[in-house]
Amino acid sequence: MDLSKVKLVATDMDGTLLNSEGKVSSRFFELFEELKALNVHFVAASGRQYYSIIEKLKPIKDDIYVIAENGALTMKQNQELQIKELQKEIYQNIIKTAKSLPNTQVIFCGRKKGYIENYGQDFENFFSEFYDRYEVVDNLHDVVDDQCLKIAICNKSGAEKNVYPLVKHFEPELKVKVSGEVWVDLSHNLANKGNALFQLQQKHNISPAETMVFGDYNNDIEMLQQATYSFAMENAHENVKSTANFMTESNNNYGVELMLEKLIAAKKA
């Protein structure tokens, strides 16, 4: 494994760079400064809202690329590099279906903010971890003054079992992804982390052999396929482990940081 040629690092956030408490380690920020000095591009790629991602990475937010909402939006220094939005007729149909599902909460993931109906304070507290800017509305169907990047559906009993089978009929017209234990996301068919990463690779003339990627869930699969140095976290979904070329430690055991240390050592050797 010759990491000395790596020019771009992309990592998922939840379950990957973030520990189980939703925090980024101080160790990572120190390693990032070394990567920056070595001219290695860094990409944070998440199903999270853009504003939530940069809040987590506030000290370095002006130095990184951000792929948000599972690839529907790519940003750098508040500049929009690409966006894939859902048309109104499509997202209204998704909302109608999603609201009919039992024991679920539905999120309209807008370009400006996230929107939820009044699901109670407990859900709002949980939801606000992933959405730094949001609004509680009477009816999601009435949200009109925003672009829809995706519709997220939450089911605390398990999204893969209780939600995905009931919305997978939207494929292949839409991208339907189980993006976490409690999340299923529906977005534009071209909105995925892999396509967004490919555009950044093209922008900088960087090949998969010069790319390192980390992920833990199904919404990371296309992104992992864009890199020779693709790493599944020890805590990853089995689909991710079978896709990635390599394994690393869990998110709570600094799996990303351990490999970044090896990358930095290889670049300096």
TrEMBL record:
Record keyword Hydrolase present: yes
Keywords of the record: Hydrolase
InterPro entries according to UniProt: Cof, HAD-like_sf, HAD-SF_hydro_IIB, HAD_sf
Protein EC: 3.1.3.-
Keyword field contains Transmembrane helix: no
UniProt-recorded Gene Ontology molecular function terms: hydrolase activity
Class of the enzyme per the UniProt entry, highest EC level: hydrolase
Name of this chain's protein: HAD family hydrolase
Organism, scientific name: Tenacibaculum geojense
Lineage: Bacteria, Pseudomonadati, Bacteroidota, Flavobacteriia, Flavobacteriales
